[in-house]
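Task card 7
Instruction: Convert sequence to structure tokens.
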Amino acid sequence: MSERYGTRYMCSILENMRALCKTLNFSYLPALIEEAQYRAERMENAIEAYGGYDGLESMEQQRTELKAEIKELKKEKEALESADKQ
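Output:
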């Protein structure tokens, strides 16, 4: 089914819906509604796969901690490299 919709994002689907309102041509509105529903269902399934919103929040906290650790490791690396050059 992903081949049917390609790699479009929700924003582009909604932009197409807005264009329909401007031109008053609603001939392909049902297809856009189906496409938006398909995308929304995939997003919901992905959220559930990560343990719901609590799981996503936990992952975001973990990501923040890892970024801080990487920053510290880079500082240590720079200190070691500058010590080696002296």
